[in-house]
Amino acid sequence: MAAVSSTDGSTRLPWGRIGLVGLAAGFMSGLFGVGGGVVIVPLLLIVAAFPAKLATGTSLSAIAPISVSGVVGYATAGEVDWVVALFLAVGAIAGAVIGTRLLVRISAPLLQILFAGAMVATAVRLVVADADPSGRGHLTVLLAVALVLLGLASGVLAGLLGVGGGIVIVPALTLLVGVPLVLAKGTSLAVILPTAVIGTLRNRRTELTALRPAAVVGVAGIVSAFAGSKLSLHLDADISRTLFALLLVVVALRLARTGLQGVRTARRRPPGTAPPAPRRPAARSTGRGGRPGARPRRPAGGGAGRAGDG
Fold first, then answer.
1. How far is CA 263 from each of CA 107, 138, 228, 260, rounded to the nearest angstrom?
2. Which of 18, 166, 216, 253 has a CA that sits 20 to 30 A from residue 26's CA?
3. Given CA atoms 154, 158, 202, 109 in this order, what sign does their dihedral have?
4. Beta bridge partners of 286
């Protein structure tokens, strides 16, 4: 299968499989309070041969409608802390701008490896936690600043890795702020929405998102995200923590593998050689009347001869 670019036509993509990606990502998003990028990015690479950076940007675009559906499911049950979400969103929006800028300019294998290690440690901490927290205390200036910084970190990772940021927000709110896990999931999805929108606007400027596939993934994930959020509301706290810890470990293994591959590639590069510059997706050629994919107009006179003829 040929690699897809941000300007490819619809006939070149396996739309049925892309829709299934959305269904899986939506359910994962609603159940765990994450954006779904941990599913979308690798599956777009596998089922649609997306370039890695385009898959990352497209994932962030697809997360927006999925997160809306998920947050509605939690909000109708009163499981969103809107005050906390506001402070997180302030940092996340700024972080998304930084992350999408880094996506164009750098390769980050070391960041992926370090982040994977932190996720494994977080997963262990979630499993050994004594009980689900009872709730946060009063909002102080120190807590507000901490929430903004947490949002900033999640936004950077969202823009750089194509995930919603929930894999950072949910465990941090639970372990550090004392927010119950279900409430942390709903709050995380409320923050993911503006993060995804800002990231998409940034990625459109650099042609690192394919909006039509993103729309298919996002629309397919709407129903399954709502179903996942409703299921999460009825899960036992211990089961919910264990499942989320398993999700963190799976994502960590994927990130560590990708990061190690990047490190090996960098070591094989000859000393003093700069890494290749990011390649912008090639635009389709336009033919007669400027229509994409049309046959080019033949030169007058029935075609050009070889150089030097005549």
1. 10, 44, 36, 5
2. 253
3. positive
4. 292
